[in-house]
Amino acid sequence: MRHWFDGFAMLHRFAFSGGTVSYANKVLDGFAYRAAQDEQRVAYSEFATDPCRSIFQRVQTLFKPGLSDNANVNLAQLGERFVTMTETPLPVEFDPRTLQAAGVPYATPGLLTTAHPHRDRDGDAMLNYAAKLGPRSSYRFFRLADLGAEPRVLASIPVKEPAYMHSFGLSERWLVLAEFPFVVNPLRLALAGKPYIENYRWKPELGTRFTLVDRRTGAAHGPFTTGACFAFHHVNAYDDADGNVVIDLAVFDDPSIVDDLYLDRLRAGKAVAWATLERFTVSPARGTVERRRLSDEPLELPRINYGRHNERPYRYVWAAGASDWLDRIVKVDLEDGSVRRWQEEGSFPGEPVFVAAPGGDAEDDGVLLSIVLDTARETSYLLVLDATDLSEVARARVPHHIPFGFHGQYARV
């Protein structure tokens, strides 16, 4: 049974030059893809698909995990080099011009990680976290100065049952872990013989726990607990004038979204309940968490003006909006609660990537780039919207459809 998350990674590149747009794509030529082609089956464990293995083979994975390099979630640039990532500790470097894979460039200090690193403004390094699993499991924040360097562990936080966390938050002072009560016993993960995500258990009695790690000292504060919920994506975090940490997330009531995205359910017309924007204000001094909804608009894949407003107060969130499926692009104004929408019959957009206008002053001065499936033509196109009012600026069609994906980035090369 296949899951939406488990498609093999394909890199897509839209290039802009002299008023024209070119397009190229290439399957990420890693060992997991090559093994699948050779064996005509899934040969390495993916998010929700696992190869058939004997109990002996499962015990072996305790010592030599059969991890996949199917890095199909997100891309990042560090210096002049590019890497594509998933939740295994095997990022794959690639050439941004040829899209040719160039191997695993660094060793992540843990077996599970995120494909949503943050940029450290101090030195233009990459920040991320990994979960080290074993008899004494821990979360490890690390800093990577460049793709050829050894990651430097900034903090280590012990944990008995690690939570599933797809991303983390960053403010000017804190690294932010939001532990949702969707947790795994590391031994079960190794021996159960089930796909990775099917080993996690929903334990709402644990609540949602926020841990703040001081970026200067590595000292952990918390956890600070509130009611149970689930999220894939942090939107932003920042420190307010009262010493609180404001943490915005795209929140689900529970992790049922994981089951809803199995392909057999989607093909059967299963309605998907999407996330909404919620704000969690953590007071380290009082030990409290205040929670409130920012918008009722159903959405996912949120983006902000990252370069100017990540770690800082901000006003606008752009995202893929939804009814039963992601079928619109939305802009949520967190100051007045208003929502703008772009929608076209039969068109299904992906994540809107914000590109700031050179020299622009306003937070929303720029454009959005989104790959849109046109079901009437059975092709896809790159849509360019004015980020201010979501009016269309341009579209560039490709001669075939592009499968639904996750995250993209804009870079000058």
Give me the secondary-structure topology.
Elements: E1 10-17, E2 20-27, H1 31-39, H2 55-60, E3 74-78, E4 81-85, E5 92-94, E6 112-113, E7 118-120, E8 125-132, E9 138-144, E10 152-158, E11 169-170, E12 174-179, E13 182-183, H3 186-191, E14 201-202, E15 208-214, E16 220-226, E17 230-239, E18 245-252, H4 256-260, H5 263-267, E19 276-283, E20 288-293, E21 299-303, H6 306-309, E22 316-322, E23 326-333, E24 339-342, E25 347-349, E26 353-356, E27 366-374, E28 379-386, E29 392-397
Antiparallel strand pairs: 1-2, 3-4, 4-5, 6-8, 7-8, 8-9, 9-10, 11-12, 12-15, 13-14, 15-16, 17-18, 18-19, 19-20, 21-22, 22-23, 23-24, 25-27, 26-27, 27-28, 28-29
Describe the protein:
- The chain has 413 residues and is mostly beta strands.
- The protein has a domain at 52-294: 7 Propeller (Methylamine Dehydrogenase, Chain H).
- 8% of the residues lie in helices and 41% in strands.
- The protein contains six helices and 29 strands.
- The protein has helices spanning 31-39, 55-60, 186-191, 256-260, 263-267, 306-309; strands at residues 10-17, 20-27, 74-78, 81-85, 92-94, 112-113, 118-120, 125-132, 138-144, 152-158, 169-170, 174-179, 182-183, 201-202, 208-214, 220-226, 230-239, 245-252, 276-283, 288-293, 299-303, 316-322, 326-333, 339-342, 347-349, 353-356, 366-374, 379-386, 392-397.
- The strands form eight sheets. Strands 6, 7, 8, 9 and 10 form a five-stranded antiparallel beta sheet that branches.
- Strand 27 and strand 28 form a beta hairpin.
- The radius of gyration is 21 Å and the shape is globular.
- The protein starts with 9 loop residues before the first strand and ends in a 16-residue tail after the last strand.
- Mean pLDDT is 88; it is low at 1-6 and 51-64.
